[in-house]
Design goal:
The protein is about 50% helix and about 10% strand. It is of the alpha+beta class. Strands 2-1-3-4 form a 4-stranded mixed β-sheet, covered by helices on one side.
Length: about 160
């Protein structure tokens, strides 16, 4: 396990599962991110080494696709929809309230306790439920800033109960 909490031996196993095939680059990256929620610099370097491609190529793929993250994410990934229907029905105050409540400043998207990552998305495809947000892909409809913060508190209380 490295300093970022990623088991590079396990990453190597994922790469080996695809026989170190270059054409499996995106699939390898998806599998690693599914397990660790992001792609660390060490991970990208190992991918480049084992696939015998340049680190620049690996980074270019990782940064081209929006679904890849080079930053550690929280256990709970909150996505606030900013599509037209949600925006018109006041999704921005939900995002702003969560951002303040989680103590996020500047470019920071993940809370200090590493539990929550806050993001916006262009559309969740749940326009009739606007304003909508997801937590780990579970949709929450007709949200308000207060309901969003209550949900975060419920999740935080659940973590305390489970982990002491």
């Amino acid at each position: 396990m490295n300093a970022t909490g990623i088991d590079l031996h396990r990453v190597g196993e994922i790469i080996d599962f695809y026989d170190c095939r270059r054409e499996a680059l995106i699939t390898i990256m998806q599998d690693i991110q599914a397990e660790y929620k992001y792609l660390s610099a060490d991970t990208l370097e190992l991918i480049a080494q084992k696939l015998d491609i340049s680190i620049a190529k690996v980074y270019s793929v990782a940064t081209f696709y929006e679904n890849f993250s080079l930053e550690a994410k929280g256990k709970y990934i909150i996505k606030v929809c900013n599509g037209t229907a949600c925006h018109v029905r006041k999704s921005q105050p939900i995002y702003d309230a969560l951002r303040e409540y989680l103590g996020l400043t500047g470019e920071r998207k993940t809370s200090a306790d590493q539990l929550f990552t806050l993001e916006t998305v262009a559309c969740l495809g749940a326009c009739s439920l606007a304003p909508a947000m997801t937590v780990n892909d579970e949709v929450y409809a007709k949200m308000t800033p207060e309901r969003a913060m209550d949900l975060v508190e419920e999740l935080r209380a659940k973590e305390v109960a489970e982990n002491g």
